[in-house]
Automatic annotation (TrEMBL):
Family that this chain belongs to: Belongs to the transferase hexapeptide repeat family.
GO molecular function: O-acyltransferase activity
Domain of life, per lineage: Bacteria
Lineage: Bacteria, Pseudomonadati, Pseudomonadota, Gammaproteobacteria, Alteromonadales
Entry protein name: Acetyltransferase
InterPro entries linked to this entry: Hexapep, Hexapep_transf_CS, Hexapeptide_acetyltransf, Trimer_LpxA-like_sf
Pfam family, any one: Hexapep
Keyword annotations of the record: Acyltransferase, Repeat, Transferase
Length: 191
């Protein structure tokens, strides 16, 4: 497959809804197959240096030496994930990244966290459409085990998302949220 991103992936990353009947959908399917092949190697790795190199293949960019992702990891594309410095992602996380997932410096992500940047309309007539929504997790946020971050959400700096929370809307800086759906539990948390 070419190193140039297909137009359909660029459209999704730019926030445009795309019908699954789009003529370029086979390119998206091939990109997913490529991601699965790269993930297979990553998910079987045991040495940290090897894991870092293999994960760079999954996302299409080099990881900073201070960033660490534990296998297994799951994604449907990978190339729309960006990771800052000092990021830690624990095992069994899933990131559906067609709409883009941006994780800033010093973020900690617990095990089994799900982040999705894509959705579908509720209307049955429109449901077979991918609707992207970029997810941004800002500096020094901590996402607890089994939390779910939904499309279009921004998690503020120094924020804590409690274990098991389902985040459906933006979270301000220095806040603790939890529950289903997530609600503010504490504001203005200090160092």
């Amino acid at each position: 497959m070419s190193t140039e991103r297909p137009a359909i992936i660029n459209a999704l990353h730019a926030g445009e809804a795309v019908s699954i009947s789009h003529p370029d959908m086979p390119l998206l399917t091939q990109a997913a197959s490529d991601a699965f092949a790269a993930l297979k190697a990553f998910n079987q790795a045991h040495e940290i240096a090897e894991m870092r190199d293999l994960f760079a293949e999954v996302i299409g960019s080099k990881l900073d030496d201070t960033t660490l992702v534990y296998p297994p990891f799951y994604t449907n594309h990978g190339k729309n994930i960006t990771l800052g410095k000092g990021v830690f992602i624990n095992h069994a996380c899933s990131m559906l990244d067609l709409g883009g997932i941006e994780i800033h410096d010093e973020v900690m992500i617990g095990p089994r966290v799900n982040i999705t940047s894509e959705n579908h309309p509720v209307s049955p007539a429109e449901r077979k459409t991918l609707v992207p929504g970029k997810v941004i997790i800002k500096k020094n946020a901590w996402i607890g085990a089994d939390a779910t971050i939904l499309p279009g959400v921004t998690i503020g700096e120094h924020t804590v998302v409690a274990a098991g929370a389902v985040v459906t809307q933006d979270v301000p800086d220095n806040t603790v949220v939890g529950g289903v759906p997530a609600k503010v539990l504490k504001e203005n948390i200090a160092d």
